[in-house]
Structure formats: structure tokens, C-alpha cells
UniProtKB/TrEMBL annotation:
GO terms for cellular component: nucleus. Gene3D superfamilies: set domain protein methyltransferase, domain 1. The lineage of its organism: Eukaryota, Fungi, Dikarya, Ascomycota, Pezizomycotina. Residues 314-346 are annotated as: Disordered. This is SET domain-containing protein. GO terms for molecular function: protein-lysine N-methyltransferase activity. It comes from Cryphonectria parasitica (strain ATCC 38755 / EP155).
Amino acid sequence: MKEVDKKRFSALLSWANLHGASLHPALEIYKDDLTGFSIRFKSDLSQDAANLKPGDEILICPLKASLSYLNAITGGPLVSTPSEQTDTSSSFPSGFNDLPPHVIGRFFLMKEFLAGKSSFWYPYITTLPQPDVLSTWSLPPFWPEDDAEFLECTNTGISAQAIRDQLKKEFKEARKALKDAGCEDWRDYTRTLHDWAFSIFASRSFRPSLVIPKALRDAALPKGVAIDDFSILLPVFDIINHSPRAQVRWLVDDESSVAHTCRFQSFDTYQPGDQIFNSYGKKTNSELLLSYGFILPETDDIHNDYLHVRKRTGAGGPADSVPGAGSAGPPQDFLVSLRPINHPSS
């Protein structure tokens, strides 16, 4: 890892630790040739260093360091109890808060990026792929036309186009809301910055219902907003890469009234030098490419290539011309697999 990267990630860990984070002493951040910035089991452990065992909690992330829609409506970091909240003013004009929570969260990330070193999250944001280096964060919806042609007539290509259309609409509405509210810096919220913020949330975020303790959800969530109407960024947590076979658990204390952390527990066995993995859930290569920008190549032990097919039904649909097709009903879904579903690698 380059010296400049070491400094950035060292600053990230120092900042996170200051607010309650903890990384297992046997682990370190490094840059992998294939997966980029990752976390691994140290290969040069001293004799008195802590070992890494299955079932260990390898990372504790304080929700104070998290970044999401909730920060946008409170104007600052999350706290464990309402009494600790000293500033509850929204980061945006009141009319802007009528937009969908996921859009507000996206613009809040943009706002904090534009704030530079004055942002509470500056040590985190500097370790993210940067907006001006498109190749480090560009997901299929933002691919150049020549590259996007390879996705034509695929599920991923269709979804990418739908995302592009939706993002264009959301961006125009949000920027207009800022302009109409008299925000002098509304022009700073550019389309490229918006696409970047979408990609960061799409590829690095977590579902709030899985990582925010109940007490904190109850205290922070506005009336009428569901807990998974938006997603949440967890610094350091998001460095751990995906493996479909990783055995992990995300732990939150829903019984505590002052819980303010999410803990990462791994049940896998690792050797010194091994990369540590998380599991993003059961996702096909199409889903992984669309949301995270990578696929898992097939091996003898595992493959991840599936195709979702939906059979249209109803008036004028193909099924109407098939004898014995019966009355129209809900669409039928099929899963086409590269290998038989009952194959051990499926």
C-alpha cells in the first residue's frame, strides 16, 4: 500500500477509534491486487499478539460514525440517547426534507464531501473512491456507451437503464428544491457528484434495520419514515469484502436503551495473511455487478450465474395465445442456472 494510502487509512482508524470503533488487533487494512482496499489477518503477528478464532468479534462500529439520512435531518452525528443530541436542525431547507429519505441521504453525502476538512466525516470520505476518478466507482448505470453495449438484452442492462432514468428524475427534483429554497450553492451539487453518491451508497451501505439498535431507531426515526426507506454507511465496516460462503453475524443490542454500536462477528477459520470476508447475502452475478461492480467467476466449487425470467400474462400477453393457458394471473418467475440447481456448486 502506498504511503499516502497508509496515512489516509491510519487517519480513518484513529478517527473511528476516537468515537468508539475497535478493529481486532490481529487484523490490518491493506490493498489487494484483485479486491482493492481490504482487511486481512496479519501475517507478521508477534508472539504476544491476540490470535483470531472463529466466533471472535472482529470489528465494532459506533453508530456515531455512520452516515445516512438520519444525519441529514438532525444536522450531525447520531448519538445513543436523545439527551446527548445538542443540535437537531436539519442540514437542508424544510422543503427539501419532503423528498424521499434515500435522496436526502445521498445529497447529505454530497454536502459533506463539499465541506472538505470541515466535515465531521472527512477522515472517512477521503478513503472513499473520489468523484473525479470515475473508474473507481462507476457502476453499470454510468458505464460509457461502448461498455454498456455488452449489457444489452440482459437483466443488468435493463435494470441499469431504469436506474439511470430514476436518478435523472430524482436529481432534477432535488436540485430544483435547493434552488427554490434559495440555497446559494445549489449549483455545486452536480450530476457527477450525485452519480458518485448513489454509487457509494449502492456499493457500500447497509440496511438500517440490521445494524441500528432499536432504541436508537426509535429515537432518531421521524414519523412516517420506515427504517429501510434509506441505507446507512458504516466506516471501516464497509472495507470488508464479499464472499458468498462467509459465515458472519452482525450484532446489535436491541434490549439496551443506550446501545450505539454494531458488532461484526466471524465464524470462519483464517490463517495469517488471509483476507477477512463479509457476506452481502445470496446475490446473483447480475445483482453483484449492478450494485457492487464485480462478479464472482465460476469455479469447480461454486458458481454464481443465474438468470431471472418473468413470463408475462394478461390481456394481450403471450400466454393469451397459448391453448389451455387459463385466465390471467400474476406473472410467473423462473430461475435459469448455469449448472443444475442441485449441483453442489449451486
